[in-house]
Design goal:
3 domains; Pseudouridine synthase; globular
Length: 332
Amino acid sequence: MDKKQVQTDNIRLDIFLSQNLEYSRNQLENLIKKGFVSVNNKQILKSGYKLKINDIVSYEIQEAQENTKEKISINDISLDIEVIYEDDDILVINKPSNLTVHDAPSVNEPTLVDWLKSKNYSLSTISGDLRHGIVHRLDKGTSGVMVIAKNNNAHIHLSNQLQDKSMGRYYLAMIDLPLKENIIIEQPIARNPKDRLKMAIVENGRYAKSAFYKIENSTNNKYELICAKLFTGRTHQIRVHLNYLNRHILGDVLYGFKGNLDIFSRVCLHAYILYLYHPVTNKHMSFMAKVPSDMQTLMDTYFSTKDIYDKISKDNIIGYFDFDNKRLFSTR
């Protein structure tokens, strides 16, 4: 039986579990109803049960997997996925939040790969049956731009670009405390030795480098909209490096966010701009995934709309990280 300690007061049981387990909300509700979840050694059967700080939530992982293994058919649900660009070699999409990219033992719901197959897209096969077309991935809770390889030749070329850093992305994130300055973080990342669901700064971990640029403080000066550029591609890299700075993405309970999840119900991280060289023509291309409506609502609520959308134009975002222009970034 696995256990997790609650760090946020008055959070619903199903929301707490969704932040800590790779299951859909419906599946978690079923686990609770079937008695696989306890709080302080007392079985709880209501999804809306409100937790308190320091409560201990216990759950049966193996039994949960055995009882929820049957995946919902992709044809039985509605996935609204925007196609940004498509040709014979690549497909560029705007992945919604709360969608897992590919199948895994703990995944019991339709994935992005399932959706791609259901639409009969031609997909590369190099990465195996579970990852057809997948060159790179986004965390389940992260929305934004992804490129899909439609054939093996495209897959090889795009994978090489990931290795030589000629392909990359810029991210938008809303955080719970403004940064003191624009900053570059170079800290190694590995699996958290105390929590298998998380990554952490670990002395002998893999090299990781991120740059964060301050875009605008919220009108109440509590939050900040920032942009991030990755020089490496470690799991949860942005989230881990922000946590190192004692900052947390709004909604990211796994890495320490303690705010109101009724307002910030998703991880406010969005892969905004993708740049690459076309695998056949070698033409340099860039694609922008529009900010999803839930994040737009938060931006309109907490930030001045007078010029924020100009500040996040494609040209401005790219210009923020023009290091040849000697824009100042501190380093840690």
